[in-house]
Model the fold of this input.
Amino acid sequence: MYKQFYQGMSLTELPLFALVLFIAVFLGVVAWVFVARRSGDFDALARMPLSEQGEGSHEQ
Done:
């Protein structure tokens, strides 16, 4: 069944399509991370290691 389906197709465009799709997804993720106005979320996450709220739970 697959042999008949792919018999008339040349798959030379498939790698190019995969590359374009990968670049589009990558740029979409980069735009979502850096362009989206979520600086408040990033600031809160950056302050987590310095917060005094969880210091009592770390016993050495």
User: Anything to note?
Assistant: Residues 17 and 48 are 42 Å apart (CA to CA). The chain has a mean pLDDT of 78.
